[in-house]
Amino acid sequence: MKFLQQETTLTHSNTSTPPRRQFLKSAVGTGLAAVGGLAGAQSFDFKPNQRYPDPAVLILDPSFTKYRIYSSTVEQLGTGMRWAEGPAYFPEGGYLLLSDIPNNRLMKFDEKTGKFSVHKTGVNYTNGNVCDRQGRLVSCEHSVTRRVVRTEKDGRITVLADRFEGKRLNAPNDIVVKSDDSIWFTDPTFGINGEWEGSRAKPEQDTTNVYRIGKDGQITAVIRDLVNPNGLAFSPDEKKLYVVEWKGTPNRSIWSYDVGDDGVTLSNKTKLIDADGPGALDGFRVDRDGNLWCGWGYSGALASEPTDIGGGMKAYLPVAKSEDMDGVKVFNSQGKPIGFIRLPERCANLAFGGPKRNRLYMTSSHSLYALYVETHAAV
């Protein structure tokens, strides 16, 4: 079965004149309506900062200064999604694929043309994606089918994993490919917890695991004791695996594991990063220097006691402001925060791309943003 290439253009928002903006607004509405009744997603006008350096790029520690390009600003490349996730860069074609989970589709940003379009619909609520070392798309179908699949160069779909120990997977979430071509993915329950990101279903696995798929196709549960593991990535030398625990105690965390000489066994579980209260870790990537670039935002935590809001009502108010926390938070390999990229929407995941692999793509709620930085991906 071949990809359904629906080249429905949405929004590329680096615009300068009112007529152009008006045209793009019209294109957004038309594009969404054309995708089989998926209209209704929010889109946002965005204006890049006029001055250098961009005040959205914050230096939390002097060591981050070398990664900030003075004359680079945050750009919005596309908008009109409901929950953007799972960016994967394809150097051979010079494009980025990403998921719009509630709309059950994959989106595409073409670097050569600047076009942002619908790439494929009916993708079983795909969440995480990755380009493997042969240039093929490997995806986590987050709900309904609940499996990990690979799209071959001719468009055929190969199922890599859908069960473990005879039981269906929960809801494959995020995914990475190691240099030995093994595939590692997380399997929380988000995609089957409700109807927003798929279809509600009862978990069959007793735990929410991290799995490894070997080159021989064997599936191994390498981590069984994390509650809803989410983003994951390897250190540049692949001697450490980092995994987000979404339901960490008391806060969301990134755990570090030593990878054994066999490339499979994990040991020395250590908490590297604590989200510290209302912070929300999600997907992340590691650069060549071992820094962790983490999707960041507000967890949605509410005050323990209600507050009078007038009209005879009391409400449980947020304990933090989303606008103060939404973006990308950068930590060094020791877990120290060194930089922050402020975004107008919460960032769920990110990927390095571009011909030099120095363009940071950030999937953020309704939109895709990008920033050129002075580093590139670890692998």
Brief digest:
The protein has 379 residues and is mainly beta. 5% of the residues lie in helices and 40% in strands. The longest helix has 16 residues, at 18-33.
Principal-axes geometry comes out as globular
Percent range for β-strand residues:
35-45%
Major sheet: size, sense and barrel closure?
5 strands, antiparallel
Structural class: mainly beta
Explain what you see.
- This protein is mainly beta.
- Helices cover 5% and strands 40% of the residues.
- The protein has two helices and 29 strands.
- It has a five-stranded antiparallel beta sheet with strand order 1-26-25-22-21. A four-stranded antiparallel beta sheet has the order 2-29-28-27, with no helix packed on it. Strands 3-4-5-6 form a four-stranded antiparallel beta sheet, with no helix packed on it.
- The radius of gyration is 20 Å and the shape is globular.
Describe how the helices and strands are arranged:
Blueprint: H1 18-33, E1 57-59, E2 75-79, E3 84-90, E4 95-100, E5 105-110, E6 116-121, E7 126-131, E8 137-141, E9 147-151, E10 157-161, E11 163-164, E12 167-168, E13 175-177, E14 183-186, E15 210-213, E16 219-223, E17 229-234, E18 240-245, E19 253-259, E20 266-274, E21 279-286, E22 292-298, E23 307-310, E24 313-315, H2 322-325, E25 327-331, E26 337-342, E27 349-353, E28 359-364, E29 367-372
Antiparallel strand pairs: 1-26, 2-29, 3-4, 4-5, 5-6, 7-8, 8-9, 9-10, 11-12, 13-14, 14-15, 15-16, 17-18, 18-19, 19-20, 21-22, 22-25, 23-24, 25-26, 27-28, 28-29
